[in-house]
Amino acid sequence: MFIVDGLSVLNTFHLAALEVGKQFYWQLGNFRVHGQVFLTSWFVIALLIVASIAATRNIQRIPRGIQNTMEYALDFIRDLAKSQIGEKEYRPWVPFVGTLFLFIFLSNWSGALVPWRLIKLPEGELAAPTSDINTTVALALLSSLAYFYAGFSRKGLGYFGNYIHPTPIMLPFKILEDFTRPLSLSFRLFGNILADELVVAVLVLLVPLFVPLPAMILGLFTSAIQALIFATLAASYIGEAVEEHGGEHHD
């Protein structure tokens, strides 16, 4: 605010134009869906499909290139599922755990490596799919459905015995745990990815040279860790659902 000849003149300096909360919607009949989330999610899914086709179209005995990368990822996911679910039960769950990990991993990294903001939308802006709470809640609910299905398919109605093991006093706590697990999974992933994108965006707008680079590199590291945590916890919940009462994981 400056005073000039007794008149007050307001000068506004736009140091940053960062908006949070605006969304680009698609109207499908009576439903409004987040179009920006679908666009970025389809992009990540397309990358996974292309990488899978490229890795398997000409399989070599000695893997190299994309085939070597995908086989390394498969070995990593198989070891993760085996350690959390158990040696006897893990194999059917490798595709599910692997899909979770790879989708979240690529989604997180897309927020840092893909210049989404160069693509203009009528409202809102494109960003990593996992920076939207709708995506992370959907992934968390899928994980919950997976461990319920694992428990029922393994034990039938005997699965409900988990709720009173080792004592019936645990019943309300086990029921509460079924609600807190998806909340914890979804908000942890959403909060970390959104916070990372906001920090980098603010630094780029305020100090657009080399200062944001360390934050971007750290963001790539934390994004990978968040994908690993989500997949590990999902596999761990499935392992708990299929283990016998009083038993241990079969490692």
TrEMBL record:
Membrane-traversing stretches: 33-55, 93-113, 133-152, 189-211, 217-238
Pfam families in UniProt: ATP-synt_A (PF00119)
Coiled-coil regions listed: none
Keyword annotations from UniProtKB, A to Z: ATP synthesis, CF(0), Hydrogen ion transport, Ion transport, Membrane, Thylakoid, Transmembrane, Transmembrane helix, Transport
CDD domains to which the protein is assigned, alphabetical: ATP-synt_Fo_a_6
Superkingdom of the source species: Bacteria
InterPro entries: ATP_syn_F0_a_bact/chloroplast, ATP_synth_F0_asu, ATP_synth_F0_asu_AS, F0_ATP_A_sf
Membrane topology according to the record: Multi-pass membrane protein
Cellular compartment(s): Cell membrane; Cellular thylakoid membrane; Membrane
Record's function text: Key component of the proton channel; it plays a direct role in the translocation of protons across the membrane.
UniProt similarity note: Belongs to the ATPase A chain family.
Protein name: ATP synthase subunit a
Organism listed in the record: Funiculus sociatus GB2-A5
Organism classification: Bacteria, Bacillati, Cyanobacteriota, Cyanophyceae, Coleofasciculales
